[in-house]
């Protein structure tokens, strides 16, 4: 699995997930339950992961939708 994007904004995760679902690309959100450790402040970024073979296509879909991938 490869990291596609990293963000604190849950709406970006939802939007990106919808885009990938419509393209038939499976994705998984990591660090969803980190709010237990941070006290529900939303300071810990969540990661959206895709399979290695889908990374190139997923990045292209995010670029087309102008989604900031949040990684350097």
How many extended strands?
Answer: 3
Strand order of the biggest β-sheet: 1-3-2
Number of domain units = 1
Any low-confidence stretches, pLDDT <50, length ≥5?
none
pLDDT averaged over residues? 87
State the helicity in percent bands: 25-40%
CATH architecture: 2-Layer Sandwich
CATH superfamily: UreE, C-terminal domain
Pfam families: DUF2007
Domain DUF2007: 1-66
Protein name: Putative signal transducing protein
Organism: Yoonia tamlensis
Give a topology summary:
Blueprint: E1 2-7, H1 10-22, E2 27-30, H2 35-38, E3 46-50, H3 55-64
Antiparallel strand pairs: 1-3, 2-3
Question: What is the structure about, briefly put?
Answer:
This protein is α+β, with helices and mostly antiparallel strands. The chain has helices spanning 10-22, 35-38, 55-64, and strands at residues 2-7, 27-30, 46-50.
């Amino acid at each position: 699995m490869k990291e596609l994007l990293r963000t604190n904004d849950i709406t970006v995760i939802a939007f990106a997930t919808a885009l990938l679902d419509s393209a038939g690309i499976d994705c998984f959100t990591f660090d969803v339950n980190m709010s237990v450790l941070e006290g529900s402040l939303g300071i810990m970024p969540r990661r959206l992961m895709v399979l290695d073979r889908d990374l190139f296509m997923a990045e292209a879909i995010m670029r087309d939708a102008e989604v900031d991938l949040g990684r350097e």
